[in-house]
């Protein structure tokens, strides 16, 4: 398989951690899209949101997705939670990647995101309600975009990685 694997899902669903572990196990490059956006902008994501708003951030995200879709080969890519909000991003990613939705229950997300200070959309006192509303609004976008879905919840990452590999039909003996 020479296609990229792109992990999608809500913030806190484990895309970065699962992506790093999956890439290491398969001997592939790992690309964390939010880190790449910060490198290109020379600013943190909270700074980008503060200076440019969500729309400005989404423009940067779209440009980086375009770049990665053209240049990355056989990589594991962890996308930001809102990457699916623009249909162009999904269409572009599908040209070079299989999209894997890491589906996570709202309660688990609320627990994982309770103390995070790097999430501008959650920088509010009603964080749990916002997580619930955003999750509900985005869930169908993740489901529609995904080639496969893997439930994460409170499962060990090793089990999640095994399921991704199995569902993608990757023969690990051929990856080495």
From TrEMBL:
SUPFAM superfamilies: P-loop containing nucleoside triphosphate hydrolases. It comes from the Bacteria. Its main location: cytoplasm. ATP binds at residues 12-17, 119, 155. PROSITE patterns: SHIKIMATE_KINASE. Binds 1 Mg(2+) ion per subunit. Substrate binds at residues 34, 58, 81, 138. Its cofactor is Mg(2+). Mg(2+) binds at residue 16. It catalyses: shikimate + ATP = 3-phosphoshikimate + ADP + H(+). Its EC number is 2.7.1.71. GO terms for molecular function: ATP binding; magnesium ion binding; shikimate kinase activity. It is found in: Cytoplasm. Catalyzes the specific phosphorylation of the 3-hydroxyl group of shikimic acid using ATP as a cosubstrate. Monomer. This is Shikimate kinase. It comes from Dehalogenimonas sp. 4OHTPN.
